[in-house]
Amino acid sequence: MPRKPTGHRRLLPVRPLTFSPFARSVARVATAFMIKHHMRDAMQQSPGDEFKKLKKVDRQSESSEDEDFHGVVQADFAFFDPKPDDFHGVKTLLQSYLDDKQWDLSGFVDLILEQTTVGTVVKLEDDEDNGVFSIITALNLGRYKDHKCFTELKEFLLNICPEKDKTGNLRSLLGDKAQDVGLLVSQRVVNLPPELLPHLYDALFDEISWATEDEPTEELRDSFQFKFYVVVSKIYKLKNANKKRSSSTDEDDAFIYIKPEEEILHKLSIWSSLFPLQTQQVATHELKNYQLTGIVMAVKAEDISSFRQQLRTLINES
């Protein structure tokens, strides 16, 4: 399936998007911390992977490697079909997908890369390092239910979901309704230009629609007839968020979304459940009242058109 490059883009300074001004300022600090440490860890583990490209970012001061990024770098981003050469880049992006759980992540990445008609990786054009800046895809829970990675993912989600009524909903989507459910996987470097997000999601959901008509067998075509999407991610939760709040501003500040689109998905979700993480929390003064928390949520496929429109509006107005 042909892909069009996104055109000339600028790799912007870290500027996470949230609806609340307070949340926006706090998220800026959090993501600045994460990109510095994520880059350092990734370059130590996988020299030449996608994070190496980010070393081109210009700085106004060179006194310390721990200073915030102040400059911009020109970059041509392009969308590509997943392929085996992307294995290490995609695996790096998904390293903490299930918190600190030891599971068959390699098998999970293999399934993502084998599904070439639905899914996108973002890279720099003409990049010799072949670095992956983003991965987005949707995998049918029923189609892959017997694979080890999906068995372990199901076990993880059912074990960490603390609310019994939500566990029932989750168990149903992972069990008898699994054939109708797409696991929506979207992971990227934290300062990927937000202007790319509407294009990424439009490409994904367009491909899903095309797959229901173009896949070579009826079984494959049916496997993309999703009725629900399940999202597994991380957000910041105000530690006293369960206490009574006095204003809508307080309500807005209850959560900080690392990925701006997940605030929209959360509001559209038919149910969601938060779960504790073992991952070390970002230790900053601005986040002292927040805790990094896991979230699993389900969204009806019929609400995706609304999601796409809201995402475009959010990015255009930010």
Helices and strands in order:
Blueprint (H helix, E strand, L loop, with lengths): L6 E5 L9 H25 L27 E8 L6 H7 L11 H10 L5 E5 L9 E7 L7 H13 L3 H11 L6 E8 L8 H18 L3 H6 L4 E11 L9 H5 L2 E3 L3 H8 L2 E6 L13 E11 L3 H14 L1
Detailed description of the structure:
- The protein has 318 residues and is an alpha+beta fold.
- It contains 10 helices and 9 strands.
- It has helices at residues 21-45, 87-93, 105-114, 148-160, 164-174, 197-214, 218-223, 248-252, 261-268, 304-317; strands at 7-11, 73-80, 120-124, 134-140, 181-188, 228-238, 255-257, 271-276, 290-300.
- Strands 1, 2, 3, 4, 5, 6, 7, 8 and 9 form a 9-stranded mixed beta sheet that branches.
- The longest helix has 25 residues, at 21-45.
- The radius of gyration is 19 Å and the shape is globular.
- 33% of the residues are buried.
- Mean pLDDT is 79; it is low at 1-67.
